[in-house]
UniProtKB/TrEMBL annotation:
Keyword Iron-sulfur carried by entry: no
Ranges where the GtrA/DPMS transmembrane domain occurs: 18-131
Coiled-coil parts of chain: none
InterPro entries for the chain: GtrA_DPMS_TM
Keywords: Membrane, Transmembrane, Transmembrane helix
First-listed, main subcellular location of the protein, grouped into a coarse class: membrane
GO cellular component annotations of the record: membrane
Name of the protein: Putative flippase GtrA (Transmembrane translocase of bactoprenol-linked glucose)
TM helices/strands, residue ranges: 7-31, 37-57
Lineage of origin: Bacteria, Pseudomonadati, Bacteroidota, Flavobacteriia, Flavobacteriales
Compartments in which it is found: Membrane
Length: 143
């Protein structure tokens, strides 16, 4: 039962990340190609918008039925903002390195960087830190 719930939560989180990511990526392309912003600045703006969408979906759908949902939203927002700052920094830096060092188009470099950042940085921190269930809540929920 626990494993099934974990897999379902992981899949839900991936849907949230996908929706936030599509918004983020599309806005990055728009800002860079149409408005001629440098892609690192576009990533900052688009990442912020994507993060707001991602947080909302995670809080109100993915982790809604878990005790972590009852944590104060201010605490979760603060933690999530720190994750987003790290994520945007890693995505901007990774995309820049792939573009400058390896001559990979920023659009492709961003997709490569995103895959590593999403699974290796964002998901673990969001699940185990931002929306973490503490032991007191876990005991209360099980009684």
């Amino acid at each position: 039962m626990f494993r099934k719930k974990s897999i379902f939560t992981f899949l839900q989180a991936q849907v949230a990340a996908f929706i936030g990511g599509i918004t983020d990526y599309g806005l990055m392309i728009l800002l860079t190609e149409v408005f001629k912003f440098h892609f690192t600045f576009s990533i900052l703006i688009s990442g912020t918008v994507g993060a707001i969408i991602n947080f909302s979906i995670n809080r109100f759908w993915v982790f809604k039925n878990q005790a972590g949902y009852r944590n104060p939203i201010n605490s979760q927002l603060f933690k999530f903002a720190l994750v987003v700052l790290g994520s945007i920094s890693l995505k901007s830096f990774g995309t820049l390195v792939l573009q400058k060092v390896f001559q990979i188009d920023y659009k492709i470099g961003r997709l490569i960087t995103d895959s590593f950042v999403s699974y290796g940085f964002n998901y673990p921190l969001i699940k185990y830190w931002v929306f973490r269930i503490n032991e007191k809540q876990n005991i209360i929920e099980s009684n």
